[in-house]
Each structure stands twice: as C-alpha cells, then as structure tokens.
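User: I'm curious whether this sequence folds into something compact or stays loose and floppy. Could you predict its structure so I can see for myself?
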Amino acid sequence: MDKLKHLFTRLEVPAKTTLLQEGQISKTMFFIEKGCLRTWVNNDGKEITTQFFFENDRVASIESFRTNQPSLYSIESLEPCILQTISQQDFQNALENLPEIKEELEGHLFRRLLQAQKLFYSYLKNNPQKRYEELLEEHPHIIQRIPQHYIASYLGITSVSLSRIRNRR
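Assistant: Here's the prediction. I'll summarize afterward.
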C-alpha cells in the first residue's frame, strides 16, 4: 500500500457520519487509521448491522465499488474516525498497473467472504447465546468498543435479549 500513499486523501469524520448510503454507488474506499465503522442494511426502517471495521481495516461496498451497481448497505462511523480514502478511478488504475495490489485485493475479498460465510452459518446453526459466546471469544474488542444495541443487531437479537444473555454469564 506504500506505493499508493500519494493517491490517498486524509478524512476526519465525527461519530454517526454516513459515508455511503444504501442504494448509492460507491466511489470511495476507506482505510481506517483510527476509529470504527459499521455496515448496515435497512429492513423496513429497522437498522441491521452486518459488520464492524476497526484500525487498519479497509472498507467499501466492494461490490458497488467494482461494478458501479447500487450499494446493498450503508457505511457509517461509530466513533470519531481518521480515514485514508482512495477514489474508485485511482484504485482501478492501481489494479491495472500494480499486480501486487490485485493480489492483495483478492486476499482481502477472500477473508471477507470467509467472515461472511462464518456469520451466515452461525445464524443457521447457533442460538443467540452461542453466537454471543463466539463473538466474545473471537472478537472481544467488539464487545469492549461497540454499543450494545449495535451488537444485538449484529447478532440478530434485541437489546433486551442481549442483556439477558450477558447476565447469564
């Protein structure tokens, strides 16, 4: 990524800033220097959190970013953030001219696919208690940094149910 440093723009945003709205076409990729972002979908007015991202993570609606189709989800800051941004055009040029960037993107996409599959199968196989225990074991920083109502949404339960699960521990 050092080869691309000159293409990045620094962006500071406060908490609760929408960086991409569901249905818009993604024209920017974000690299988190400091802070936390989440992705979420709107289900009849109810926000459902789908992922959390922290320092050193890359975030974009990659499907939209690469295909110019409307994004399936929104991207929002949960904390004040310092981000490095790169435009779709600059990133596309880098992919064409730097094969190592393409390899890194493939690795990133593969990791995101595995993470999404793991969450999907956890929804199918596990009850909310087990999903919470997996989250606590594999991603304790989420429990420490993210407000409870977003964690509940991510786990597919209500905040009240999450409180009950936490109290049982």
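Summary: Strands lie at 9-13, 18-20, 28-34, 37-43, 46-53, 58-59, 74-77, 81-87. Helices lie at 62-67, 88-97, 99-125, 128-138, 140-145, 148-155, 159-168.
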